[in-house]
Amino acid sequence: MTENTPSLKEKLEGSKKYLQNADLKGADLEGADLQGAELGGADMRGANLKKIFLSEAKISKANLSEADLSEANLSGADLNKSNLGGANLQQAYLRRADLRGANFSDTNLSKANLRECALFKCWIKRADCSQANMQNIKGAQLHMQGSVLKGAKLEGADLSGARLDNVNFEDAGLQVANLSRANLKGANLNRADLRGANLRYVVGLTREQIELALINKTTLLPSYLKAKWTSETVFTILDKKD
């Protein structure tokens, strides 16, 4: 009799449209197919969601804190205002997901794909985003203080008005990114590629930071910093004191 009893994973896969506010704390759902599932408000704290398929799922206002979402597929999912604090999203695929207002603080997002995600007013503080793909994200007013983005891809990203204090952008690609009005106080820009980036009206940017980065004549610097070019690749940064 017990041999034919469906597992929790099988039950959820069969009723994926009716899982709003479900209590799934600590559940083992590794590899489950919950594409398009209705999981709004669900409690999945500490759950094993490794390699789960949640593409296009509705997961807004859910609690996934401390959950293991490594290698999960969340492409196109609605995670608006969800809590993923402390979760493991290493190598997760979130392309074009709606992450507006969500909490990703203290998460592991290394090598994750967040390309083209909506991240307006999202919280990603103290997170490991090293080697993550964040190309063309819509991250206006993003809170990312203290996060690590070593080697991350941020080409074309909208980071206007973002809090990027003490972020480690070492070796990150920020070509043609929009950083207007962002706070870059204490950010590590060592070898960061800022060619064509918009740095107008940024706060906290220093001459020393720019001298460690890669810029070109199309990089838009704030009014208090000016690049004096002696060749196509060699420049001197002048500030108001000069």
Describe it.
The protein is largely without helices or strands. The chain contains two helices and two strands. A two-stranded antiparallel ribbon has the order 1-2. The longest helix has 7 residues, at 8-14. The protein is elongated. The N and C termini lie far apart (83 Å).
Blueprint of the fold:
Layout: H1 8-14, H2 207-212, E1 225-229, E2 235-239
Antiparallel strand pairs: 1-2
Average pLDDT metric: 95
Class by alpha and beta content: little secondary structure
- What string gives the helices and strands in order? HHEE
Compute the number of strand runs: 2
Q: How many strands, which pairing sense, and closed or not: the largest β-sheet?
A: 2 strands, antiparallel
What is the helical fraction, as a range of percent? under 10%
Strand content: under 5%
Summed up, what is this model?
This protein is low in regular secondary structure and 242 residues long. The chain has helices spanning 8-14, 207-212; strands at residues 225-229, 235-239. It has a two-stranded antiparallel ribbon with strand order 1-2.
Keywords:
elongated, 4% strand, 242 residues, little secondary structure, 2 strands, two-stranded antiparallel sheet
